[in-house]
Backbone:
């Protein structure tokens, strides 16, 4: 009988991963997130403001689709855990075969078909359903590889740090869209052409880049999950309270009363500095660029910071306490002059300093939770565990989209006025600053309450690794004797 948890013979053999393979893995996450953030940030905007679909209708459609997407993800994760696979080939096939399909579907969603409103919604629903199905398999595979790349908690934390940096790079490149959009519009391209061209580059190009992630080795393997059905495989989550708390905490952040940042910047900002005119789109680009630099730099030291302050849970605490305090200060500073805009950007950059480390903390804690679940059940659950990351993101997107749709409708947003170059109502403009600045505080408070119940710490993790190592050695000895 085969032994459990053997190391891949093509690697060092000690459970550690060469830097060049971690870089390849990280670049794959860059590609995936390049397309993902373009879709999540701009697909709804494209349908509301470029194709002029009613905001409430499109928000309702996206909210329902997000809920279905969220239900779909655990099914995908459980299927991945349950399916038969060769040793060290549990997740890598999904990194190889899904990207081209995802890239094509992503691009097609930004095509202006010219259909009537009902036809456009039907077209979007069909493509989005297919996109999400393939994306779920790829996403579980990409992030689940962190848990399989090494049996060592500290090494997994290092891998999580660098792939999170790679993912952040993809999000940062996608964040250049507003500036690229402004340049292309100035060159004579239409809005529809701009959105489609960027979909080709960001989505299709990004997914092809994501193929690099398949170079990371799987160094941990086990027998397939034993259960009679996929649904029964999902029930293993009851043995993983840490993961459930992480998911609930992340969802709570989405319960904030806010709308997409573009509404604030495009309708409320715009500055003249000497002879230079800074539009709202340019202001948003500068805000994202300079506000994110400190946080981006901090990600390179995530593991050292966590070790110094006492664990990944402490990073989550610090991030939200910082966000609450600085956002309240920023609200009273204001934004209506260029000097205040600079101060606002600098203050929010301080929020992003610990905030940028949150995804690394989530993933590191998730891989630790898989070890804890293995001690309780004897099963490796990378599929169902990392499907919860996507599940939570979709549920959060559903909640935020519904909240955004209600707020836009309540405040009287009119995409037709925007298309005509007219200002929105005074009521709409009045509420943008409070929503932009203080809206996230609501979610931060809820987050802190939930995260306080998570167990973490250096001694706690060391004890889990020791118990797991002893359990594996005992199993291997027993199987060798058979």
Residues:
């Amino acid at each position: 009988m085969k032994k459990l948890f053997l190391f891949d013979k093509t690697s060092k053999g000690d459970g550690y991963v060469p830097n060049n393979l971690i870089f390849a893995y990280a670049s794959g996450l860059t590609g995936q997130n390049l397309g993902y953030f373009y879709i999540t940030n701009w697909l709804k905007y494209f349908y509301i403001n470029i194709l002029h679909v009613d905001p409430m209708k499109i928000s309702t459609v996206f909210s329902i689709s997000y809920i279905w997407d969220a239900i779909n993800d655990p099914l995908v994760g459980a299927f991945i855990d349950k399916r038969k696979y060769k040793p060290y080939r549990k997740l890598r096939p999904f990194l190889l075969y899904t990207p081209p399909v995802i890239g094509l579907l992503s691009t097609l969603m930004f095509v202006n078909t010219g259909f009537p409103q009902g036809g456009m919604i039907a077209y979007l629903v069909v493509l989005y359903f297919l996109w999400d199905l393939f994306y779920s398999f790829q996403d579980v595979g990409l992030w689940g590889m962190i848990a399989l790349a090494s049996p060592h908690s500290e090494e997994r934390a290092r891998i999580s740090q660098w792939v999170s940096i790679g993912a952040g790079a993809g999000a940062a490149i996608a964040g250049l869209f507003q500036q690229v959009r402004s340049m292309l519009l100035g060159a004579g391209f239409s809005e529809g052409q701009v959105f489609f061209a960027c979909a080709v580059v960001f989505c299709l190009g990004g997914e092809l880049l994501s193929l690099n992630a398949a170079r990371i080795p799987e160094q941990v393997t086990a027998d397939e999950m034993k259960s009679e059905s996929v649904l029964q495989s999902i029930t293993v989550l009851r043995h993983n309270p840490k993961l459930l708390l992480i998911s609930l905490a992340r969802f709570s952040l989405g319960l904030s009363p806010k709308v997409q940042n573009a509404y604030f910047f495009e309708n409320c900002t715009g500055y003249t500095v000497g002879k230079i005119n800074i539009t709202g789109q340019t202001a948003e680009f500068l805000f994202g660029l300079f506000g994110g630099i400190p946080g981006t730099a901090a990600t390179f030291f995530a593991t050292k910071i966590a070790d110094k302050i006492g664990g990944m849970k402490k990073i989550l605490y610090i991030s939200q306490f910082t966000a609450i305090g600085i956002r309240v200060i920023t609200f009273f500073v204001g934004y209506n002059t260029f000097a205040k805009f600079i101060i606002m950007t600098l203050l929010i950059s301080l929020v992003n300093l610990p905030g940028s480390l949150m995804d690394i903390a989530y993933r590191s804690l998730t891989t630790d939770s898989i070890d804890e679940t293995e001690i309780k059940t004897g099963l490796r659950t990378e599929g169902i565990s990392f499907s919860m990351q996507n599940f939570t993101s979709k549920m959060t997107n559903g909640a935020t989209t519904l909240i955004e749709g209600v707020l836009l409708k309540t405040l009287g947003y009119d995409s037709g006025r925007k298309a005509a170059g007219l200002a929105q109502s005074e009521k709409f403009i009045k509420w943008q600053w409070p929503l932009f600045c203080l809206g996230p505080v609501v979610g931060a408070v809820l987050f802190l309450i939930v995260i306080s119940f998570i167990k973490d710490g250096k001694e706690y993790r060391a004890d889990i690794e020791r118990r797991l190592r002893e359990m594996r050695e005992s199993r291997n000895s027993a199987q060798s004797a058979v």
